[in-house]
Amino acid sequence: GRVEFRDLKTQYLRHKEHMDSSIQDVLFGTHFISGPQVTQLEERLSEFVGVKHCIACANGTDALQLALMAWEIGVGDAVFVPDFTFFSSGEVVPLVGAVPVFVDVDPLTFNINSESLENAIAYVLHHTKLKPRVVVAVDLFGQPAEYDKIRTITERYGLLLLEDAAQSFGGRIGERKTCSLGDISTTSFFPAKPLGCYGDGGAVFTDHDEWADRLRSLHVHGKGGDKYDNIRIGLNSRLDTLQAAVLLAKMDFFEEELAACEQVAERYTRRLEGAVQTPHILENRQSAWAQYVICLKDAEERGRVIANLQAAGIPSAVYYKKPMHRQAAFAGKQVEAVSCLETVSLCERCLALPFHPYMEEEQIEAVCGRILGEIG
To answer: Average pLDDT, stretch 211-230?
Structure first.
């Protein structure tokens, strides 16, 4: 059959009865906002991750903004963000009045480069009036960032660590799961994510009681005792009950899907290793495989591979076409502290292939055949 980039239909059909009854319960209960499923989901997620508090919210971008708001990050503050990531990771920084400082990434893992981070912090301290406050570590494409190295730096400079685990829910370092690796961690339940709902959704995780209280208030209009008692300026950012029900149902087969993704990734790597740069997963780590991303020699070779896949009706995608520091939205709102040459190069060379837990061997074979046929 046709190769889907991310096959949500097969997933649904495979688990239809379970999904339908979970959704049906919400329709019968008619408790569409803050129904019991939301609290159940928060408990289940915090148990899965191994963190004390989980606050479900409307989407992964709000999750990041809520974290910055809980920490009262704002005017005069510098927030360090990888240059190679989705717009949200940096977008929330000017939203709260702070200044993003984009940092280069490691060309093999695509995650934040600690040396570049140190250089950027030094630049901000010596050449600006801004106060370094937060590092946003993104677990790109599913692989956790190098938290041991990042922690050394955040502790040395007294910075807060925000884990953007939008793409890595279900990943881990040793036994430690993503969403437990930051002072506050966030994730996204966008449909194409490792654990996705049927619309927008997100969550914030922390072990810190006071921050958790603030987050619970902030995501419902800064409420105090109830929603008509408002003690701070907040957001309207709830996860609705239907989405919570979808996620609860999907949690039942989530581990199965992670294991299947691991196998699909291994098959891809076995076929493509040596011909292209395949994903480099560090030792003692488990990726959640939000995407399977290869790197080609240059933009020209990538263009040829995309065209050759397209000719066979096979989709592919480029994450990300533009470094963050070149996004028009950040013009005049950022500090350019370090050069981000690896990011610039990755934006020209990387390509995400069709990838999901339900991929069949011949589909993987078809994709690899077209790639190897073009560059071989």
So the answer is: 96
